[in-house]
Write a structure and sequence with these properties.
By secondary structure, the chain is an alpha/beta fold. It has 10 helices and 5 strands. Strands 2-1-3-4-5 form a 5-stranded parallel beta sheet, with helices on both faces. α6 packs across α10 and α7 crosses α9. The longest helix has 15 residues.
Length: 212
């Protein structure tokens, strides 16, 4: 069972997501919060597996709340296109990905399961492009300590490839890829693949493709 907390300052949005999630037998909504500070308190009390976290909320925003959550809870940021500038900061704060608020039910269910399972939600191309645009303005990561193969793997992660896809591209086993990914994360002090994507852009290893 995936235990979920919903944090959003709009009651209608909280209710809508709660109703959607309740249709799935492997989901249990164990708490709700109307601001970031309340989200931190609710999570401390209910110990969820995942938090659906809005960005703009009173008292404490979703980015600061994400920063303060314990490592046990994965965070899936809820945003809209006009709030995209906050996604980059949310990822740096420890979020595992983001969803648009007009997401389809199927996409929501898939995202919750992926993130709760410990994976990062590598969003569509627009997300990687967005991260690239902001990372270009604030480079903070060096990848000089990586081996050539690890650098290659990091570049492929940033392209959105899964471990099996990377294995096929490099003609190696999936176990070998997992080892390389683990070493990349450890060397760069990253938690998951989403932060690896950010690091790839921050370091300049991957060049952003800007929207036309």
């Amino acid at each position: 069972m995936i235990r979920i907390v919903i944090a959003d300052d709009h009651p209608v949005v909280r209710s809508a997501f709660a109703d959607l999630l309740a249709t799935q037998p492997d989901f249990a909504v164990v708490g709700a919060a109307s601001d970031g500070a309340e989200a931190v308190r609710v999570c401390a009390r209910t110990t969820p597996d995942l938090v659906l976290m809005d960005v703009r909320m009173p008292v404490m925003d979703g980015i600061e709340a994400t920063r303060r959550l314990s490592a046990g809870a994965r965070v899936l940021i809820l945003t809209t296109f006009d709030l995209d500038e906050y996604v980059y900061d949310a990822l740096r704060a420890g979020a595992s990905g983001f969803l648009l608020k007009d997401v389809t039910a199927e996409r929501l269910f898939d995202a919750v399961r992926v993130v709760a399972a410990g994976e990062a939600l590598l969003a569509p191309t627009v997300t990687r492009r967005l991260i690239g645009e902001f990372a270009q303005l604030r480079p903070k990561v060096s990848v000089e300590g990586l081996t050539p193969r690890e650098t290659q793997v990091l570049r492929l992660i940033a392209e959105g490839l899964s471990n099996p896809e990377i294995a096929a591209r490099l003609t190696v086993t999936e176990e070998t890829v997992k080892t390389h990914v683990s070493r990349v994360l450890n060397k760069l002090g990253l938690r998951d693949r989403t932060q690896a994507v950010v690091a790839a852009y921050e370091s300049g290893l991957v060049v952003p493709r800007f929207r036309a």
